[in-house]
Each structure stands twice: as structure tokens, then as C-alpha cells.
Amino acid sequence: MWKKSKVTDQTATGQGAGIKKRSKVPGVMITQFIEVLPEGKSTPDFLRKPIALTIQEGKLAIFKANVCGDPKPEVTWGRAKGDMSDTEKFLKKYDEATGEYTLEIHRVSGEEADTYKCYAINEYGKAICTAALNVIEVGFKKKKAMEQLEDIGSVDPAEFRKLLRKRKGVDKQEAVKEPGEIDERFWEIIMSADRKDYERICAEFGVKDFRVMLKKLSEKKKERQEEQAKYIETINNLKHIDIKGVGIASFEFDLELKDPASRIFLYKDGVMIPYSDEEEMKHSLKTVGKKLIFSVRDLKAEDAGLYQVDVEEVNLFSTDFKIPTVDFIVKIQEVKAKEREDAMFECVLSHPWPRIKWMGKNATLEEGEKYTITVSEDKLIHRLLIKDCSQLDKGIYSAAAGIKTCSAWLIVEADSDPASHGKKKTRKTTQAGGTGLDLGKLAQEQQEKLAKERQEQINAANKARAEEERLAREALLAPPPPDTGHGDSGEGKDTRDGKNKSKSGSNKSKDGGKSVGESIGKSFGKSVGEMKDSEKEGDDKKNNKSTDDSDKGKECKIKDAEKERDDKYKKSTDDSDKGKGTSNDGIDQNANGDGDSKERKGHTGPLIPDTVIGKKHTETLWLLHGGSLYPNGQSGTGETGEYTDVSGKRSERTRQGPLLKDTVIDPGVQFVSGLSNVHALIGQPAELMCKLSSDDCEGAWYRDSKKLTADDGHIMSRDGANHKLVINRCQEEDSGKYRFEADGRKTEAMLNVEDPPRFDPDDLSAFSQPVIVKVGNSATFKLPFVGREPMKIQWYRKGEELLDDNTTKIEKSFTQSRLLLSKCQRKDTGEIKIKLKNEHGTMEAISRLIVLDKPTAPQGPVEVLESTASCIHIKWRDPKDDGGCPVINYNLERQQVGRNTWKKLGDIPGVPEYKDNDVEHGRKYCYRIRVVTEEGVSEMMETDDLTAGTLAFPSSPAPPKVASAFNNCINLTWSPPTDTGESRILGYNLEKRKKGSNLWSPVNPTDEPIQEKKRAVTDVVAGNEYEFRVYAINVSGLSEPSSPSEFIFAKDPKKPPGKVEDLEVADTSYTTLSVSWNKPTEEVGVQDEAKGYFIEVRQAECIDWTRCNVTPIILTTFTVKSLKAMAMYWVRVIAINDGGEGVPQDLDNYILAMPPPVRPCFTDNKMKSFMVVRAGNSVRILLNFEASPCPEVTWLKDDVPLLKRVNISNSESSSQLLITSSERSDSGIYTIVVKNLVGQESFSVEVRVTDDPKPPGPVELEENVPGTVTVIWEPSPDEKRDDHLHYSVSKRDSTKGSWSTVADRLFNNKFTACNIMLGREYHFRVYAKNDMGMSAPSESPTWGSERRKDKFVVNMPAYKTCDLRTAPAFLVPLRQHTAPKGYECYMSCAIKGNPKPRVTWYRNNISLNTNTNYLITNICGVCSLLILRVTPKDWGEYNIQLESALGRAESSTKLTVRE
Fold it and tell me: Is 733 helix (H, G, I), strand (E, B) or coil?
């Protein structure tokens, strides 16, 4: 990140120092050549920068970039190392249509791996960005290995073995320190990450040197904080991006800006993306107070990347979004379950996933009493169990893993057995049916597949490594190229004491004397231990058997391999066996190939043998070609010998000293899995576990830097490489940071012991039993609990919190809480819940209160099922409230109308109907009905007068409807009559009539009524047209006939119609669209005539069609309404006839819900371009316009965006600017810009906010010329803020009583008045004026003199005033009071004092004047205090204090409260 700072280097020819700026795109450096840019000009910048590529050799690499700037910058490409002159290899392109610059590198190889730079330059500045190209090489490159060997000669032999030990760490350290080697994304991500994530991020980006990284990170953070301080007050609570719901990811943070008008930008992978405050958009920003929540909806794979938030040009926050590749192999299926059964959804994933998100009815489901969520051990099978299903549980349930989701219905069927309704029964679990899949078998197959893929990847890597080793070995053993140099031979003598004296000089060669003995091949790249493992693996693959050989066996295999290579190489080394020096090409054993080659010299110091420090022992391997193996520095017997190392290379050395060991340090024990943070409940066990890479390594446990022992009550165990610490019963003191150390490495984790509220299971079971009381009695709920204090206790009844009052009393203690409900009423029946909450969690328990009472009266109206000459059959509804007890009986009484007595019919079982057979024909009867339960008898319900035996015919049924028609049969259905005539329907009679005839003929015999509400009429003639009507029959007789049905032909069904023709759009608007079409053609036997049409629409992003008309329409035009503005819709029309629906006809293209395009224009004829407003009043500007599509409306003030205090209200055709309380700073030119796809229009209004001006300053008078007076005044304070302010001068002389204006619209502070006469007094006034009005005058001193008469003076005698002041005192003091609890208490006293003293009431020395529970008054010296309802809390000492400047008085009393 760049800070704006001056640089002293020349940026271009003829230009001075440049200014470095930070670009919106991370990783881009901008240099500005001049300090002030001309208006409308800009420096170059990148809209899209090239991204780093990692590509396999031989492929095509493409870098793309988009730039901006005025004037248009020139774009060039370059690279850090090497040139780009090969136009066939490096191809540069520019696309004028997209403005995209492209660099193509064809057939990339390792030579093109480099850092590439893109330059954008114009006359005002330049922009530079870089992108790395990494090339994956395939196979061993012999040529490259040989070239790297040529550089090994620059290494001093004495330092060569140190490089072998240290080269790996040095390379990694240099990789961090070299600028440009670390991806810029690394710094953006780690600067916004938590410290606990540093290790993961560094491992992901390949950063190894933490010390250098932390130092550079600290510098970058300091730079960022300095940049952020310009715009930000505070930023905290940063939460990285995460998937929150189905298809939604979000990240959030708290932000407080110094300037609320600062702009906020959102970037993804360096490209700015638009966002909106509407949650329906792809990217949205929601602001809740100081919290900013960025959301990404409709997640897809391409949404992964680096998201950054900037304020102006300063970066605030970066977060890396990675989308997992998990998917559903088996999705959840529809489940059908009966009430009170359990239902289970289950699915199988493609990759292990710790826990998926389950949702039901758009709400996240959590583990609890209702839902059980389980995951298999392999984390592939996930299950959701819904317990005790009810009708409320049915709906759509979904599962989400990453961005993948699946959903299915839960259908809950009602219990078919009414006798078991509401009763408990044995529950069973219902799973999804119909798939027939064994999920366990599928998960096992998937796990085997994943393991196979991992093994294939490992085998491929091993195979590639073995191939590289084989090629390296072949290159090593290949005959050397012909030697063109001259080598001088020499003789040496090898002694037993290890001293080697050389008789002749050294070996020399033309190409620098490269020696196999003094250089180790780069491409071979294996240490002694690695070489053993490589040889061992090669033999295992060849012989297909396990290799559990000992170290001795491994060493023998190495010697055999070396011997075989020595035989092949013997011919080329015969001269060296005799002690003669030869010049050979050596191969560097350094895998990184960073060594240099140097001319071989006689070695005068000790040589170091290869020593491998392993986990258990150290072994030294010397292989002396042609002699024996001598460890511990001993030498051979020959004078010269060939030294053969374990990698199979030979070199001739002239030894003159003892041999020393070469030590290669094993990295040691590593952590395979570290400790994880653990949350445990107090008293429950907790377990911490980690795994090492070694099975025989001991370790130590620490808590808060204190070493733990078995005596501390901890169980420390080890199972191979797994180390475990178990705490059986966690206590608060066990919380802390735990650390495990082994072999100098450590891992840490936090143990948090929590003490949330908890209930004893037995107490909870007893509490959950319902409490049953009778009305008027008291109910008590008590529940003990445990948990850490402080504890918040809340009681709820039917969802509403209970507080102490007359009927409710809540008792709380440290171990239990008790709820007492007195005088319970029937309406109090419902759920009782206790809720406990502390810092560790929340716990709830639920019980139920049932208050028993007498039932309410039965519900009417009474339905007459049958009324004949011999019986009356009636039915009524159950009572609205049965009082908490089931209905036992109904008590009935009957009265014959006209008589005064009631006849008791007795009790009938609890079925709400009664058939009275003891009636007389034509008589009227009235009934009284009461409900009988265990709690008593309800109030009565009295019926209307019912007549026995009156003829009541049913009403006419509905007209028959044709279900289907054929040549020999017509199927009809009908609906029963709405009025049955107070008796049941006995049947129906059906009649038919042929079209053109007046005669109705019966379909069924009149003495055999049709019992069902349908009939198949077979007595028809094919081709004729018929209509039908139906009669209803009850005990009184036939009803009136129904209306005739529609005419129907007796013929076989028709064929569905074809597609409509010429479907087109007639008109569109923001909410409607009109379509028209022509009828489909008829084809005999294929498609018949259409009788109606259905119109269907769907939005472009939806897949389901919505039908616009419920019934078919006959017209060939239709208008679709209630559309969403600017949305895209697809439309289709379906023709229909008696044969069914035809094939839909779709429009060729989608339709945009908008009217025809209209360029924005203002519709008001008289728009004010200037307005004056008084400061403090509101400013309201309303402008009407027309435009299509809906335009974007922007308001500007003096060509800059408006402040947030200005309210803008926009509609489709108008826009209003409102400033509720204007200030002078609101003055300016307000411009509205209305813009849409067609064009834009703007209009400006000048607003002047002002107020009555303040008067001018002091006025002075001067006489510069006789007969004139110059009036000079100080300017008004508003003169600087109001350019329309001017002054007016008025004059009055002593001979006139009125003022006259002598000057107006003066814009200076001086005026000269003429015609000033001697002997007169003159007065001047100066006024300030503006557009709003005139200020108060500023008076001048009197000018001139006038003879004045002496005033008449009356000397009044002096009177002595009377002092009426008195000190405060009590005329009547307070008296003792004793008040019963719940009654009011009135205290009063009489006081005096002048001036009026200040009165203060106290209770127990605490002031009551501001306490709203006491009514305090002071009327005409009578001070009173009223307590409306006395409680024991009011017991105490009350006193009243009077205070004034003359003194202080006090009176006190005591209040005693009686129970």
C-alpha cells in the first residue's frame, strides 16, 4: 500500500518530482508527474489488473488489463528478468470494443517464469502493476541441471558443507524477503485476520519465515492506521465472510466515520463491484447503527475471491471467501408421517462436512427437544429427526452444505382414529420412502472413492519423484563429455594417521576445473537418509513385498547400488585409481541447485563424513572405493583412494588430515493435529488431545505456564502418537490456557469452564406436570436450579412476563424460584414458563396451569335435522369453554308454546343432539339446554319456537353440471340445496329434455329417488343435444326444479386445440403488459376448435409459470397486471376446449415491464429558479417530470453531493427536496439531474437562506464640510455572510417629530447628509436590510445644540420603608402517623416565611421531591405529602426542611405501617 509522499527521483524527461498515490486496485502504484492536475484530466489507473498465473509448460499464458485516464494512456509490457523481443513468443493485443490490453505468451517454458509488469503512461503520470508467472515443469531437465552446475565453482570448499545444511532455510528466508515474491493477496488478507489464523494463512501462501513476515506486517499495519486516521474514528468487531443462510454470505464490522459523507467502495479481486441498500440485489449493504453488513446473494462458484472495503482511497477490511466443493450425492426426500410420530430426513454428501445447516419454514433449526441432528462418524451421512409431529410441523424443510441446498416436504397426516385423539401413544419414526437406497453403503463407497483418489494423488506424486530421481541418476552416470583441458597428474601418499601429503600440484581443466569430489549434483537432491528410503522403495516396488529391513540391510542395499554404478563408471576412472587427477563434471546434490562450481584444489584440512542424526541414533557412513569402510576419522591403507558417498558419486581426494563428520539435522517431531479450544460445563468431564508424528515421544502438559502432574487430579495418557489430558469434574479454577510441549514444539488451546443455569431432571419432570386448581384458588410453581450468579429469573404466562402485583408474587433465591398465583380465573389457564439467564447461557422450563370452572352455555344456532308430525330432531354446538372438564351430560327442558310450565326431559349423554318423539302435529315447542360437567351446570340456552309436522319443502338444488359426455352416455353431478326444509334429503329426481322440445322426461323412476349427487344418463341418442334439471326430496315432498343445465351433445370428447397464432405484444407499462393472438387452426381428427384461452407468465429468474386468469377467456387479447417494474417476463398462451388444453405458445423474446422509452423532461410550466427562505423554516422544492424507464434522480448542491440532513423523496414522476430546518449554510444552487437510458435533463434552483439582519455597529458623526454631516457606522455582523445586505439611513431634526429616509441601498459604511442647519439638533438612524427584511436601527449621538428650558423639580419627602421579611418557621408542625398497609397516608403542616422558603421533603435522609411515588403540594403555606398506597417500604422517618436567605427550619415525624 502506498502513501501519498513526494519522491525525489525524476519521473520523466523534463519533469520534476512525482507524487506517489495509492490506487483503488490493490497492487497498483501510481506516480503523478505534476502537483495540480488540470480540470478534467487524470493520471492513469487500472480498472482491472493482470492476475498471477500458475500454468503447465507448453500451454498458453494470457495476462489481461483494463486502464483508464485522460488523456488515454499508452500501455506497454515488460518483465523483471529477460527481454520480450521475440514477437512470436510474446504477442501483445488491444481490443477497441472492450478496451482490453492482452499479453499472450505461447508455449511457455521454465525460462518464461518471471514477474511481468504492465505500464500505463500519459503526460500527467504513470501506473505500474505486476503479475507473477509460475511454470510447472514436467520431467527432469538435464540441460537446466547442467547449467546450474556450472555456477557451483564460486563456493569455497570449506563452506560448502555448511551450505548443504543451511541451504533450505536460507532459500525460504530469501523467498520472503525478496520484494514481489509474496502474493499481494497475502498482505491484504493477513492484515484483517486474527492472530490465531496467521499460521494457516502463511501455510496457504507458502510463507515460512514468521519473524520477517511479522516485522513487515507491523510496518504495513502502521501505514494503514495512519491512512485510516484521515477518515475513520473507530473500526472494530470485524467478522470475516461466512455463509449465513441458503445462498447468502455476509461479513460485517462496526465503523464510525469522521465525515458521514465519505464514500464506501466494495472490491472483489481488485475489481470494484456495485452494491445497493436493497436486500434483493446481488451485493447489498445494510447499515444498523454503526454496524455495516455486506451481503452476497445467489451464491455461485465464481463468487469466491478476495473482498475488500475502502473508504475513499483507504482500505478498511479484506476477507477471503472460499466456497467448498461439497455436494449432495443423495438429497433429502419427501416424508409422510402421522400425527404423534417422528419424521426423519437424511442425506449423503460427496465430501466430509462437520455439520450442515437444517432449515424449516425459512428458520434455522437447532438441536433441542423438538429436533435431533446427527452426523455419522465419516461425516458423510447427516440426519434430522423431528419428534412428535403435529400439523404445525408440516411444510418444506431444507439442508444446506456450503452453497449447495436441497429441500423436501414433510406431510403430516391427521390421526385416522378419533378415539385416540389427544392421547399419548407409542411413537415410531418415519423415514423418506421410495428411494430404496442403503445410505450406509453409499457413504462407505464414497469414502472408499475419496481414499482411492487421495492414494492416486500420492502415487502420482511418488511416481513423478521417482522418475525425477531416475533421470537424475542416469544423468549422473552418463559418460562425461570429452575433456578439452590439460590436467597435471600428481602423486599422493595415504598414511594410517589420516595425514595426506601431496607430491604434485593440482588438477586443472579448461572450463574451470570442475571436480566430482568437490561438487554434489543438484538434480540428484537426496541426503543419506532420503537415499536409503528411495532405494528401499524402489526394491519394494520391484519385489512386491514389505520392507521392514534393519539399518544394516538398508546399508547393504546402498553399497550394492553403488557397486553397480561403479562398475559402469570404472572405465572412465582408471587413471584416478593410480593417483592421477582427472577433470570431470560434478553434479550438485543440493535439491535447490543454488551451489556454484569451483576449481578443485588439494584439501589441507579435515574432511567431514556424512552423518544423519535420526530419532534414536547417529550413524556415520564412509564408503571408500577399492578399500574398507573406516568410521570415526580413521583412514585407509592406500596412498590415494576414491571417496564414494551414499549418493553414488565418486571423487578422488588427496587427504592430509583427519576426516570429520558432516551432520544433517532431522526436523524432529511434528504436530499432526494440535489442541482445540474446549468448552465444558462445570462438574462435567473435559478432554484435550493432540497427535504427534512420532509414537515414541514424551511430552509435558501446562496450564497457564504451570506444569501439570498426576497429583493435580488430571489424567494424562498416551496412546502411540496420541496424547490426551482428561479432567473428570471441571471446576472454575480449571479454566485457562493449556499447553502441550514435546521435543521443543508446543500447541496451545483454551479450556473454558462454564456454569449455565441447570435443572435437576427429577425437579424438571415434577415441574412439567400441569397444576390443576379450581377457580378462585391459588396455584404455586416452584423449581430449584443451579448456576453461576448473577442470575436473571423471569416468569411468563402465555408468553407474557409476570411481575409482582395483587395476584402475582415471585420469590427468588440463589437456589430456587417460586411463583404464587392467587385468585386464579379460568382465563389464566395456559402455559407457565420460567426462564433463567446468566453469562454462560439460558435455560427454560415449561409447565401448564389449568383452572377448573363451570362450563359456558351451549352454542347456537340450533339446527333442525328433522321436523315431522311425530318427532322433532335438533342439533346444537358444544360449549365454547367446557371449564376444563369434559361434558358429561346435557340437561333438557321443553315447553309447549302457550303453556307456562316446563317439562323436564332429563339428562342425555354428552352428544349435542336430541330427537323428541313425544310431540303433537302442528304444535310449537321451545327447548332449554344446559351443560353438565364435574364442576357444575352451565347457564341455559333457549331455542326458538319449533313446529312439529309443518310442511317445509327443500330449496332448489344447483343446476346439474356435465362431468363428461360420450355417444351413449352423459355423466352429470349437482350440489345439494342450501335449505333442506328442516329435515334430511331423501333423494333426487332427474329429468332431461332434447333441444327443440318442450317435454321433460324423467331419467329415473319417481318412486326410486337417486341417493347420490351424480348420475350417468345412458338413454341418449348420439349427436343430439340435451339439457337436464333436478329435484330434491325430503319428508315434506319435492322441491322446485333446479335451473336447467347447459346444452350438451351426446358425442365422444373433442381433441385438444393447437397452438395459437401470431402471438405478439400490444402494449407495456411498469405494471401491465397486453398481448394479442389469433385462434389456432382446426384439423379434423388432430385438433379441434378452441373455446377459451389461459395466459401464463413467469419472471426470467423463475422456472414456474403463473396463470393470470382463473377461468378461460373468449377474447384474443389480454392485459397482465401487477407486474414488477423493470422485471423481465416470459409470456405464453394456452388454448383450451372440451378435449383439454393445447400446446402452449411462447413469445420469442422476454418482455421488459416498462413503457416505451421517453427522454426525461420537466412537466411544470412555471418552475421557480430562485427562492428566499427564512433561516429555521423548511426548504421544499418539488419538481415534476416524465421519463421512461424510471430514471435515476440525483440532487447536487453547488455541483457536489448533498449532506445527509437533506431529505430526498422520489417517485415515478416527481422528486422533492426537503430541508426541515434550514440554516444559512444551506444557501446555494441546487441542481436536479434526471437520467435514464434515453438521456438526461437537469434544472437548477438558487436557494437563499437568510434572516432578519442584525443592526449595524456604533454610529459616529463627523463634519468635514460646513453644512454637512458624515454618518459613519460599523458594518452589520451579517454583512460577510449575506452579499445582498445593504443599509438605509433615516434623519430627524429637532423641529420635526417624524423620521425621513435620506439614503437607501447603501453598500458601504458611510453617508454624508447635506442641508444641516445651525441651532438644530439632528438624530440619525442606520438600518441593515436584506431579502428578508430590515434590522433594528442603530442610533447616532445628537448632532448640534438647542436652547433648553430648566426642568421643574419637586422635592418629595423621604419615607422609611417597612421590612416585611421573616425567617421560615412552622405554624403547625408534622404529627405522628400510623397507616394500614394498602391504604393512603396524608401528611401536612403549615409554614410561614418571606421571601417564600424552599421546601424539601426527606424519608430516611433521602430527598423525595423528585420521586413520582409521592404527591407533594405547597398551597398558601400548607405543605402536604400524599402516599396513595402504603407499603412496608414506606416505613421510616419523614422530615421537611424550609430554607431561605434568612434562615432554616425543620420538622420531622415517623410513619408506622400496620399489616
Answer: helix
DSSP, collapsed to helix, strand or coil, labels residue 1422 as strand
Give the separation between CA 255 and CA 224, rounded to whole angstroms: 16
Determine the Cα angle at 506 with ends 504 and 509, to 5°.
Answer: 140
Exposure of 675 by Cβ count < 10 A (0-12 exposed, 13-18 middle, 19+ buried)?
buried
CB 1424 within 8 A of CB 1414: no
Question: How does DSSP assign 287-325, residue by residue?
Answer: EETTEEEEEEES--GGG-EEEEEEETTEEEEEEEE----
Interatomic CA distance for residues 908 and 912, integer angstroms? 9
User: Is residue 1385 within 8 Å of 1377, Cβ to Cβ?
Assistant: yes
Sign of the CA dihedral 934, 937, 941, 947?
A: positive
CA-CA distances (angstroms) from residue 1022 to 646, 1047, 1051, 1052?
106, 14, 6, 9
Are 1287 and 1326 spatial neighbours (Cβ–Cβ below 8 Å)?
yes
The residue assigned the cell 457536489 is: 1200
Radius of gyration of the chain (CA): 51
* pLDDT per position as a tens digit, 174-190: 333 444 467 777 887 88
Q: What letter does residue 441 receive in the DSSP assignment?
A: H
**163 alpha-carbon distance from chain centroid:** 51
Comparing CA positions, the residue from 192, 71, 76 lying closest to residue 123 is 71
pLDDT for 614: 38
> Are the beta carbons of 785 and 759 closer than 8 angstroms?
yes
Average pLDDT in the 902-914 region?
Answer: 89
Neighbours of 979 (CB within 10 A): 14
Grid cell at residue 1256: 449595524
Q: Which cell numbers hold the place of 52? A: 498471477
Give the chain's count of helices (H) and strands (E).
Answer: 10, 105
The β-bridge relationship of strands 1192-1197 and 1200-1201 is antiparallel
The Cβ-side half-sphere exposure at 150, using a 13 Å CA radius, reads 7
Cis peptide, bond prior to residue 1053, ω within 30 of zero: no
Whether residue 989 contacts residue 974, with contact meaning beta carbons closer than 8 Å, is answered with no
Between CA 945 and CA 1404 the distance in angstroms is 74
Report the distance separating Cα 534 and Cα 516, nearest Å: 22
Single-letter code of the amino acid located at 1050: A
- The model's pTM: 0.32
- Say if CB 646 and CB 609 are below 8 A apart: no
Spatial separation of the C-alpha atoms in residues 649 and 584, rounded to whole Å: 11
Q: Which residues pair with 1370 in a beta bridge?
A: 1391
**Cell numbers given for 411:** 406431510
Q: Give CA torsion, residues 1150, 1153, 1157, 1162, to 10 deg.
A: -170
Phi, psi angle pair for 823, to nearest 5°: 55, 55
Q: How far is CA 929 from the centre of its chain?
A: 61
- Determine the length of the chain: 1459
Q: Which residue has the cell 554404478?
A: 565
Question: Taking the CB of residue 973, how many other CB atoms lie within 10 A of it?
Answer: 13
Set of cell numbers at residue 97:
470494443
Q: Which set of grid coordinates corresponds to residue 1403?
A: 424519608
pLDDT bin (cut points 50, 70, 90) of residue 771 is very high
Residues with Cβ within 8 Å of residue 1361, at least 6 apart in sequence: none
**CA dihedral in degrees (756, 757, 760, 763; nearest 10)?**
-170
Highest-confidence segment of 93-102, 179-188, 865-874: 93-102
How many Cα atoms occupy the beta-carbon half-sphere of 393 within 13 Å?
24
Lowest mean pLDDT among 649-653, 1027-1031, 1382-1386: 649-653
Q: What are the φ and ψ backbone dihedral angles of 617, each rounded to 5 degrees?
A: -150, 170
Q: What is the reported pLDDT for 1105?
A: 92
**C-alpha 1092, offset from chain centre:** 49
Q: Which residue, among 39, 69, 60, 55, has the nearest Cα to 102 in the 3D structure?
A: 60
CA distance 335 to 357: 19
